[in-house]
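Listing S7. Sequence submitted for prediction.
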Amino acid sequence: MSIYYPLYNWLCAQAANNISAPFKQIEAILGFSLPPSARTSPQWWENDRKHVQCMAWIEAGFEIRNLNLGKESVEFVKV
């Protein structure tokens, strides 16, 4: 099981189709800090199944949209 499984569980429990989440909230859900690349590289947030973190939101039925590295926030959108 991936270290990002808590995020998967949290997303599965959400009723909303669009969920805005600051990085700090995602870290609280995960129980650890996101890697530095999550704060500097848009590629870390790509909807690409080759990345282990991506599987958490894709398997929960979401995609990343509206990434804002400056504000450290992201939007999960139900697909």
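Caption to Listing S7: primary sequence and predicted structure tokens for the chain studied. The chain has a mean pLDDT of 96. Residues 5-78 form one domain.
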